Amino acid sequence: MATFQLKDTVPDFELPSVAGETFSFKQHQKEHDSWHLIVFFRGSWCPVCQEELREFQAGKEYFEKHSVHIIGISSDSLDNLKELVDKEDITFPILSDEKMEAIKAFDVFYHGEDAPYEDHGQHGEPAYFLVNEKGEILYQQKQTGPFGRPHPNELRKTISYIQKNIKE
């Protein structure tokens, strides 16, 4: 598992998208010369995640205005995620990482069989990575459970602060 320092380059990943395609982060970066906010969330069954995704969708225009593309990743099944996206009308990429390839590559906490408490079975926990156009980490935050994660409005403040104070 990787532990990232600020300005480390994030690993590339290719995952199935609810849109029916294989999403390549490297290819997406080439097509969108901008920053990315990679949001790992627990699953379609998680009410806290559902609310968070609604908030990201409501703020999508703000993020895009500030040249930040949102990408959501969960260890949940593609079918479950597709149902969630359709129900909540999510328009940014939502990816399924059932094999936990990106979760492991980004060192996201994982609630597995060896977890000290029961919590909806096995799944990845919330994590956030702000990545610049070069693929370098400018901000990261990882959770070991569903609560205490930054609200999308707090992430907007963080992004604004970093963009105003970025060293050239």
TrEMBL record:
Keyword Disulfide bond carried by entry: yes
Residues of the Thioredoxin domain: 4-164
Keywords (A to Z) from UniProt: Disulfide bond, Oxidoreductase
Residues forming the catalytic site: 49
SUPFAM superfamilies (UniProt xref): Thioredoxin-like
Pfam families in the cross-refs: AhpC-TSA
PANTHER family associated with the record: PROTEIN DIPZ, THIOL:DISULFIDE INTERCHANGE PROTEIN DSBE
Protein's recorded name: Peroxiredoxin
Natural source organism: Rossellomorea marisflavi
